Every structure is written in structure tokens, then in C-alpha cells.
TrEMBL record, chains A, B:
Cell location: Mitochondrion inner membrane
Gene3D superfamilies the UniProt entry points to: Extracellular Endonuclease, subunit A (3.40.570.10)
Chain positions recorded as Mg(2+) binding sites: 189
CC annotations in GO: mitochondrial inner membrane; nucleus
EC identifiers of the protein: 3.1.30.-
Superkingdom to which the source organism belongs: Eukaryota
Keyword Membrane set for record: yes
Listed Pfam families: Endonuclease_NS (PF01223)
Residue span of region Disordered: 30-65
GO biological process entries: apoptotic DNA fragmentation; RNA catabolic process
Annotated protein name in UniProt: Endonuclease
Cofactor(s) named in the record: Mg(2+); Mn(2+)
Family under the similarity heading: Belongs to the DNA/RNA non-specific endonuclease family.
Length: 349, 349
């Protein structure tokens, strides 16, 4: 996987739920490109505009009386008025840890952990939880309840409430808007995305410990008219405040339960759009590096390749469709008698 | 200024160089809004969908045998595989300090400092400087020289080379791509934006120390067809890699030279587009809070209001148009005899 340069771009027909395309460029082809003459529109005064490789560093002539021994300026002095940031608003809650994107008012990422035991506990009830603004984030950078009102988008949990039933406090902590992004409701948040979240929970039938990092993406798409790559997303609120992501990712670490043991890794990118229920989940699997390039984040740099397995090679990566109404009934029904979740819902390869 | 909620949005006719609009909402009006019934499309199971204010916190029933005394999960455990970031790639160079946006491959901000004395030194010559990729940034998040090739955009300095003539090393350090954004060339980078940079330098005729923070913005614009606010920007490179900002900001701190003295503050937002030379610079002045909301950054939180003055009340905020060819000639001519820059080019109010 490290032999490739990867870029995530939106599929041409993303609006009908088609998969994100992972454009894969062999390094060989890229190297060849790099030897081409580069002619750019630029303001450089270089006599040779094709020259872009810097020359060997030239020692500063400290003996020249014109060159100051002490720099005449102090670029860091402006920090006396405040350091610009960005501040990532790390939030450690019972059910999740997250980092917030102050420019787009969505999380950068939200990390969670589920186990067979944590999912069996049923002390939290979402009827007692309420969506709430995250007051740990300064007012001017915060997502507001009003931003979502009449926007047409769901307040879409990044860590699902259903993963945090082990206590009411844990469940409540998933209802902060810093754990939300605007998501398409019918056909996505209430359907395919929910089935995908269910898939993640079912992984605990095979793995004693499952860690998931979830977050938004803003991917470029090729313009049909001028052929240029463009990122385009709505911003909801009056005045506009919260960005509507074009896609969402989940990076899944399914652990074998042994210290220093194997980790089955899966990365998925889904468009924030209606996805037909019969679309195979595996169509949305991408190399983890593609999520990293698209998000500017890194997820598994410290995980040795020798310990890494590919999740979708070990188990069947597919969703089970439960209708929304049925799922809501199940969620509202009393807790089941204790026991392992049915393992028959997932196939071991 | 603190009495208002501010949002930066792109003007309807930004493509012809029209100014960014600072939408100003009185808090009074906003409060009224907040008392309205909120009906949202949401998956909450609350019996009363209009209720969005969280109830008083309920103590966890620790005496309930179903509630674990020790949380059954550890959301931070995933960091054993690497902390996702974001990493801001702080760079401290002789002529600038910057922070890099790994998702959009542009700086978040670049800070510089100029003084009458620093601008008089002429040891650096841009003919000896070369554009260079910033190898301190991991390859997968870096802006590449090839991304700009044939893109139609200039490699636009955020800290201008002309502000760093005091040593060749200082000038060279402005040529790293982490100090660049794709900028429209003719009519912007080579014209109005260059005149604006010249305005900043001329400030040293009145202020003994001038600090400037410069960076890109990606502002929403109201869609003429559906009335929705949308952010839309091109991404250059093959595969697409570097975002083309819709706007650029400069936050200027003009200091009176006394420790704890007065600071004249000016914030400007210009569209990354052709701007007619006769457009008044003051049309682009915005409240600093508007730049903060748009960028997710904070610039002057530690500057006491009692020390703050408004730059454009003290001096005439206007550009002087020098044609590109003439400017290039001036830049390439030998250094002038030492002396203060001509004060006649700027008017004291």
C-alpha cells in the first residue's frame, strides 16, 4: 500500500450513492512526470523559469557589514496579542474523545471504543438525552442548535448513541453538537449509515475490542463542464455557520484482545447522500492512507505492519438492512436478557 | 464590536472584485430567534421534538448494580496506534512564522514583522531565490511544485519576498510552498494584492513596527438558484492536492513603538479574483472578529481594547497603483541610497 500515491475524490455520480473513487497513481508514473519541464504562471524573476529545484544553500556573508548579525525583525512578536491557533478543542467524554474543526464547526474526528460487554449494558436511554451545544467551544466557533433548525439535515451522531448505552451519562455525552455533523436523513443517516453503524457493533461478535474513529470529509469532484476538480459543500445556519460534509469516514481497529496482538484494520468512506440498501459495503472500503490524505489526519502510524490485518479479508464487510421503524421499536423495547449478541448475523470468511 | 454576531460571506458579485460582505446581526434579533420553537429533522426519540435545551444533569445511579463503577471502555486507547492530529506544522523561519493546513495544503496563517530599518536593508535578491517544497511537512500533506504547474494560478507569497530583503536567507525562506497559496495572477497577485502589500510596507512611514498575519479563507456564497450558502473552491494538482482559496485576509498590527503602547489594528479580506485598481482598499476592511469566525483562528484576544486603535481611522487606507512592469524594474534596480522611505506616499488623517 505504501508503494502508491493515493487521493480520495468524489465519484462522478456521488449523488446517487455511488462510491468514492480512490484514485491510485503508481509512483513510477509520477516520477516520470517530475522530470518534465515545469512551466508555471509565476511571478518569479528567475531568468530560467523552468528551474524550480533550489540551489545548494549559500552561507550568509556575516562579514558583510550590510547583513545584520541580529535579525532586524521578530515574526513571533505578534503572539503577544494572542496565538492564532488553530485550537483543536480536544474533548474527553465518557463515551468518546473528539477534536473540533473551528472553521467548519464540525469535529475533525471522534474516537470510541466498544466491546461485547459494553454493548450488553443497557443503563442509558436516548429518550432521556437531549441535543446540546458544546459550551467548551467559544461561542464564535460553536455549532448551534439553531443552525440545524429547518436546515433539512439530521444532527448526525459521529459516535452513535446506541454505542453508549452502558450509562446515561455516556449516552448523554454523545448528544453534544461537537459529536454531530449535518447528515442527509432519509436514505443515509436513518438508513445506510445506520446499517453501517450496526455492522461496527456486530464486529464485537468476532473481536473482543473494537475501536472506531469517525469524521467528516470535504472531497473534490470533477466539474463536468470545465473538467476542474472542485470542493463544494453547503453551509447551514443564519448566518451560515456549519459546513455540510460531502462524505464521512470510519477507520475501524478490530483487536484480537491480546496485548501487542493483531489488529484488523478497515477504512471506509461513504458519501453524505442517499445510498441504496443493496449497495455492497465493501464498495466503500478505501486504503487508510486515502482517508489520511483527504482529512489531513493520521490514524495508524504507530501500528506495526506485522500486526496489521485487513478487516474485510477476515469477515464479510456487509450491512444488514433493518427498516427504520423496526429499528426504532427495537431500540425502545426493554433490554434483552443478557447473552452474547447473535453471531449468526456476521459471516467469518 | 463585541455586541454583534459577525459572519463573513462572499459578495454576490465577487467575481468582478466586489468586496466581501460582513453580515452583521444584532444580538437582539438573534435572541428573539432563539425563543422560537425549533423543529428539526432529527432522529431523536424525544416525545417533545421542540425540546432542545438539556435538562439539569442527572447524577449517575452508582448504587444501581447495572451501572459500572469503572467505565467498560477506553476511547483514548486508539491513540496507541497514533494520535490523529491535526498537526499544525509550525514553522519558524528568519522572515516568518507559519502554521500549515494539512487538509488543504495551504498555510492557516503566516506572521511577519517589518520595520523602517528592516525594509532599508537590501541584502536579498529574489533572482537568487527559488520556489521549494517544504520538506518539514510529510509528503502526503505537502504542496508540490507540480501541483502549481499549468494550474493557471500563481504561487502567491503570503509573506511577500519584498518584505524580506534584509538577508538572502530571509528572502529564501519566503519561497517555501508552505508560504504560498494559489492566487489569481493578473489583476490580483500581480496587481491589486501587490498594491496592498505595498500599502503595508508604506505603513512603516508612520509606525516604527508593523506586524502582519496573512492567510487564506474559503468563504460561502449564496447560490443564485437555490438560495443556499455554499463554499466552492478548486483544487489543483494531478491528483487534486492544493485548495484554491476564495479569499485572503491580512490582519495588521501597527505599533507605536512604546512597550505596552497603542496598536492600530486593521483587518482586510480580499477575493482571490481580479480587482479593479480603482477599487478603494477600505471597501475590503472588515471587523477582526469576522476574520476570526471565517478562519477559526483568533488574532488579538490578548490585546486590551484600551490600547487598540482603528488603523483606517488613523491613516488613509488606500493603494497606490504601480504597473507590474514598472514595479519589477524597481525591484531589480540597485538598492537606493539609505534614508527613510518617502512619507509623501501615505496620508495621515
Amino acid at each position: 500500500m505504501s508503494k502508491f500515491t493515493l487521493a480520495l475524490v468524489a465519484g462522478a455520480s456521488a449523488c446517487v450513492g455511488a462510491a468514492t473513487t480512490a484514485a491510485i497513481y503508481g509512483i513510477g508514473g509520477r516520477r516520470q512526470q517530475e522530470t518534465q519541464t515545469v512551466t508555471t504562471t509565476t511571478t518569479t524573476l528567475s531568468k530560467d523559469p523552468s528551474r524550480t529545484i533550489p540551489p545548494p544553500p549559500v552561507a550568509i556573508r556575516r562579514d558583510d557589514p550590510g547583513v545584520p548579525a541580529v535579525p532586524p525583525v521578530d515574526p513571533n512578536g505578534v503572539f503577544q496579542y494572542g496565538f492564532p491557533g488553530p485550537v483543536a478543542d480536544l474533548r474527553a467524554a465518557p463515551s468518546l474523545t473528539s477534536s473540533f474543526d473551528r472553521a467548519r464547526r464540525n469535529p475533525h474526528w471522534v474516537a470510541e471504543h466498544i466491546t461485547p460487554a459494553s454493548l450488553l449494558l443497557r443503563n442509558g436511554d436516548r429518550r432521556h438525552s437531549y441535543f446540546a451545544e458544546d459550551h467548551t467551544i467559544p461561542e464564535k466557533f460553536r455549532a448551534k442548535l439553531l443552525d440545524y433548525a429547518r436546515s433539512g439535515y439530521d444532527r448526525g451522531h459521529q459516535v452513535p448513541a446506541a454505542d453508549a448505552k452502558w450509562s446515561q451519562e455516556a449516552m448523554d455525552s454523545t448528544f453534544a453538537l461537537s459529536n454531530m455533523c449535518p447528515q442527509v436523513g432519509d436514505g443515509f443517516n436513518r438508513d445506510y449509515w445506520a446499517h453501517f453503524e450496526d455492522f461496527c457493533r456486530r464486529l464485537t461478535s468476532f473481536y473482543p475490542s473494537v475501536r472506531i474513529v469517525t469524521g467528516p470529509l470535504y472531497l473534490p469532484k470533477r466539474d463536468a463542464i470545465d473538467g476542474k476538480w472542485k470542493v463544494s459543500y453547503e453551509v447551514i445556519g443564519h448566518p451560515p455557520n456549519v459546513a455540510v460534509p460531502t462524505h464521512f469516514y470510519k477507520v475501524i481497529f478490530a483487536e484480537d484482545g491480546n496485548a501487542g496482538g493483531n489488529v484488523s484494520l478497515g477504512a471506509f468512506v461513504l458519501p453524505n447522500d442517499i445510498i441504496p440498501n443493496d449497495k455492497p459495503l465493501q464498495d466503500f472500503e478505501v486504503p487508510i492512507e486515502a482517508v489520511e490524505r483527504a482529512s489531513g489526519l493520521e490514524f495508524a502510524g504507530l501500528l506495526p505492519p506485522a500486526r496489521t490485518k485487513r478487516l474485510c479479508k477476515e469477515i464479510a464487510c456487509s450491512v444488514i438492512v433493518k427498516e427504520y421503524a423496526e429499528r426504532q421499536r427495537t431500540m425502545m423495547s426493554p433490554p434483552p436478557t443478557k447473552g452474547l449478541p447473535p453471531a449468526t448475523t456476521m459471516t467469518k470468511r
